[in-house]
């Protein structure tokens, strides 16, 4: 056996005792993240839930290298993050499609940024259009799409970038309930085909449990991790069956209590 076979790969993302504070003009710095340690493995799907203003988006920005920690560190693929690391992709709640580019060309942006050779780009774009069920809309403009379709194009662009790690900040939060469930299933289907590590921030406890391998619960600001649950539910997940699964109910109730939500 080669020596390299015995050495396990570093985690995709690793937060080690991370602290983040924002300076304020007339007050001590606002401590937002207070000693958070977290590891996300290769191909792992981790959901993060926590109260509004607890620092969830801030954590994602720190992993992207957009914020300098006040203490501790962030590592991606074993390398300390000081500037935006390669192959870490981001998707926000609001899509950021380019209105002057068609669906196919918006997805192609991901190929261009990710360095896919020019001659391979059309095939990759076509593959993603099929995977995301956008066939027939290749030449449509973003304004001609529904909210769910726009989010699928955003997801296509993210995947075209070939990220090792996908940071998703309430990506389906603005969608209606039905579309949100459909997008969750779409994401799982794609993730099962093209395994990437995902950190998925959401306000929706059921969405977190339904999608993820693990759910990490943040406290109110300054954020600490109050719970880290392994979601022991079989895949592929079937949304309707999940709702009556005792593991699903038990987990959602436990997270509800962790967040001290009114019953
Ligand atoms: N650039 C910044 N400068 C100063 N304060 C900031 C900055 N970015 C975020 N904050 C503060 O950090 C705290 C956490 O913000 P963050 O956006 O991470 O919360 P969140 O958990 O994502 O909330 P939500 O669920 O509402 O999206 C908030 O109090 C916010 O005001
Ligand atoms: Mg946020």
SS strand fraction = 15-25%
Poorly predicted runs are: none
Q: Please report the distance between the alpha carbons of the first and last residues.
A: 55 Å
Q: Which strand order does the major sheet show?
A: 6-7-8-3-9-10
Rg from alpha-carbon coordinates = 19 Å
Percent range for helical residues? 25-40%
Tell me what you see in this structure.
The protein is of the alpha/beta class and 263 residues long. The protein has two domains: 3-87 and 164-258, P-loop containing nucleotide triphosphate hydrolases (Rossmann fold), CATH 3.40.50.300; 95-162, no CATH class. The protein is built from nine helices and ten strands. The longest helix is centred in the last third of the chain and has 17 residues, at 177-193.
Give a short overview.
The protein is α/β, with parallel strands linked by helices. Helix content is 35%, strand content 24%. The chain folds into 2 domains: 3-87 and 164-258, Rossmann fold (3-Layer(aba) Sandwich), CATH 3.40.50.300; 95-162, no CATH class.
């Amino acid at each position: 056996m080669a020596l390299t076979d015995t050495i396990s790969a570093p985690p995709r993302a690793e937060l080690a005792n991370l602290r983040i504070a924002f300076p304020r003009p007339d007050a001590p710095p606002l401590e937002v993240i207070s000693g958070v340690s977290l590891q996300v493995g290769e191909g792992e799907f981790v959901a993060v839930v926590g109260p509004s203003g607890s620092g969830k988006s801030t954590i994602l920005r720190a992993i992207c290298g957009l914020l300098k920690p006040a203490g501790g560190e962030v590592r991606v693929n074993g390398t300390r993050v000081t500037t935006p690391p390669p192959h870490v992709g981001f998707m926000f709640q609001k899509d950021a499609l380019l209105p002057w580019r068609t669906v196919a060309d918006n997805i192609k942006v991901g190929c261009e940024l990710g360095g896919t050779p020019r001659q391979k780009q059309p095939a990759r774009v076509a593959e993603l259009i099929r995977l995301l069920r956008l066939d027939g809309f290749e030449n449509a403009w973003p304004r001609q799409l529904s909210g769910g379709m726009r989010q699928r194009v955003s997801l296509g662009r993210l995947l075209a970038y070939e990220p090792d790690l996908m940071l998703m900040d309430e990506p389906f939060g603005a969608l209606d309930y039905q579309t949100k469930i459909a997008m969750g299933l779409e994401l799982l289907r794609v993730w099962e085909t093209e395994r990437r590590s995902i950190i998925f921030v959401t306000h929706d406890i059921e969405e977190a449990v339904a999608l993820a391998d693990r759910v990490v619960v943040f406290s109110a600001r300054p954020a600490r991790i109050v719970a880290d649950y392994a979601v022991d539910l079989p895949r592929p997940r079937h949304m309707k069956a999940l709702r009556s699964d005792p593991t699903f109910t038990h987990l959602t109730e436990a997270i509800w209590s962790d967040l001290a939500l009114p019953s």
